[in-house]
Specification:
globular; 8 helices; Rossmann fold; alpha/beta
Length: about 260
């Protein structure tokens, strides 16, 4: 299916590995012009080798000065902007709320939520000049379920949904669509680390915790990064021109988090 994204100008945060890399590659495969940033320099170096057509810049998106510098570079290189994918996030601590260090809370909110503000505020004006503008924000299934021992992450991801729905109302008059993607249990190293941390906190085995998590899905399969990317392509295309203000779960009908 030709989604009409050839020449589409796209910024993907945390785009050098994991979900972000799958998204960047998916847009590039459709003929879009993609620019990414990432805090992981080793991943950026690997991206330069594997995907030289996708420029990458080192940037901590929780740092406003760094974000400003990155956007100045990216917007000049791209000649404008059609889609912003706010993908950056961290897992944050796994612990009871009284045991969470304030610094860990602050960092989780800064990377998972405030970074989206840092980027969006700089994207709005160039998006207003686009013929097909959209913003896609990464939330999580944790954005609609309570999540024991993961309060910083869950709070941030609930915030992403409120941010996205408010932006949809605010930016809709300019034709800018804004949606949140809520991944469920995403296969990969990051999910493995989350399961391992939860297993340690509960004094259970990795396999026990993984089985408990997957038992909450009607379709007990982990989501792939490519499945997330496929949805984002549709939302960014003109086929998704009336989809805005939505919190879209891609999660195998996940019924809760344990």
């Amino acid at each position: 299916m030709d989604l009409g994204l050839k020449g589409h100008r796209v910024i993907v945060t945390a785009g050098a590995n994991g979900i972000g890399l799958a998204v960047a590659r998916a847009f590039a495969a459709e003929g879009a012009r993609v620019q990414v940033c990432d805090v992981d320099q080793a991943a950026l170096d690997a991206l330069a080798e594997s995907d030289p057509a996708i420029p990458g810049t080192h940037c901590d998106v929780s740092n406003r000065a760094a974000v400003t510098a990155f956007f100045e570079e990216a917007l000049e290189d791209l000649g404008g902007l059609d889609c912003l994918v706010n993908n950056a996030g961290i897992a944050g601590p796994t612990a009871p709320v009284e045991a969470i260090e304030p610094e860990d809370w602050d960092q989780t909110l800064a990377v998972c939520l405030t970074s989206q503000f840092n980027c969006t505020r700089l994207a709005v004006e160039p998006l207003k000049a686009s013929g097909n503008p959209s913003i896609i924000n990464l939330s999580s299934a944790a954005g609609r379920f309570g999540f024991r021992n993961r309060t910083p992450y869950a709070a941030a991801k609930w915030g992403v949904i409120g941010f996205s729905r408010s932006l949809s109302r605010e930016l809709g008059p300019f034709g800018i669509r804004v949606n949140a993607i809520l991944p469920g249990i995403v296969a990969g190293e990051r999910q493995d680390r989350v399961i391992a941390a939860k297993a340690r906190s509960l004094n259970k085995s990795f396999d026990e915790v993984e089985a408990e998590i997957m038992s909450q899905c009607s379709i007990p399969q982990m989501v792939t990064a490519q499945e997330l990317a496929d949805m984002m392509l549709f939302l960014a295309s003109t086929r998704g021109k009336t989809i805005s203000g939505q919190a879209i779960g891609i999660d195998g009908d996940l019924q809760g988090l344990v």
